Amino acid sequence: MSHPHRFLLAGVMGMPIMHSRSPKLHNYWFAQHGLAGAYAPLAIHPDGLEAALRALPALGFSGCNLTIPHKVAAMGFVDEVDETARRIGAINCVVVRPDGALHATNYDAFGFVESLREVAPDWRADAGPVVVLGAGGGARAVIVGLAERGAKEIRVLNRSPGRAADLAADLGPPIVALPWEQRHAALADAATLVNTTSLGMEGQPALDLSLDLLPRSALVSDIVYVPLETPLLAAARARGNRTVNGLGMLIHQARPAFRDWFGVMPEATAELRAMIEATL
Q1: Phi and psi dihedrals of 186, rounded to 5?
Q2: Can you tell me the distance from the alpha carbon of 237 to that of 242, in angstroms, rounded to the nearest whole number?
Q3: How many CB atoms lie within 10 A of CB 109?
Q4: Which of 213, 219, 208 is nearest to 188 (CA)?
Q5: What are phi and psi of 95, to 5 degrees?
Q6: Which residues pair with 102 in a beta bridge?
Q7: Tell me: the pLDDT tens digits for 251-270?
Q8: Cβ proximity of 39 and 22 under 8 Å
Q9: Which domains does the chain have, with CATH numbers?
Q10: Beta bridge partners of 243
């Protein structure tokens, strides 16, 4: 799509924000597709979030991404929220419509599923039980993505069991909440294992999880990308499981946002991945 008469603008709102890799992703795609534009990190205090969002049309922005701590609060400051974002309970992408209305969605579920398919093209959500560790915002996006693609049983386990139970009650079947103490046994017939907790992240303790019962055919994913290989992924790879780190989710959730804003669906190239890995 050609945009000969204006400089294209988008950005990511958060606080703090300068650690975000999103500007590198989107500015790479601007250059790759020969588009005149820029994607900027926008340090927005929570008190200024509504004003910042409402200023997007007047400033000529095509839209923005949202990250911590704005992904939930922003739902109250836009004009439309799609069904996927409502199920996740948060938004991460705002698109400015031609009439200035703000339409919001959440591409984290898409990004997660595409990251699995990139590594394992034969992966299917309905291949067998899925075990999801954690019950926060990342878990909700992962679970919605799995459910939308036909997962028949999603076992959710969280260190605070009440949160897992609330998530299962809110989202409904095929989600089942299990006690954290059953996390080892829950792997016995799993086809996919996903860690959405902070355990294993740089500066955090490792996830205490025995993989002895996990089938070696299972795909193991960790949505963390610092480090790229968490202790969970290292242990899974060592025993023969295919593994997926969190960098693919970050890259793939950005692709449909760029498409919505600028009319081009960019690719997740090896060059782009290497560029982002070099910053980690």
Answers
A1: -65, -15
A2: 6
A3: 26
A4: 213
A5: -115, 130
A6: 96
A7: 999 999 999 999 999 999 99
A8: yes
A9: 8-106+250-277 (3.40.50.10860), 109-245 (3.40.50.720)
A10: 220
- C-alpha–C-alpha distance, residues 224 and 77, integer Å: 29
Query: Which residues are designated catalytic?
Result: 71
Question: What span, in angstroms and rounded, lies between the C-alpha atoms of 222 and 205?
Answer: 14
pTM: 0.95
Q: Which residues of the chain have pLDDT under 70?
A: 1-4
Task: Extract the tokens encoding 159.
Answer: 């260190």
Nearest to 180 by CA among 190, 167, 193, 165: 165
The amino acid at residue 258 is F
Q: How far apart are CA 124 and CA 129, in angstroms?
A: 11
Distances (CA, A) of 92 to 31, 63, 108: 23, 11, 8
Axis crossing angle, helix 108-119 with helix 137-148, rounded to the nearest 10: 70
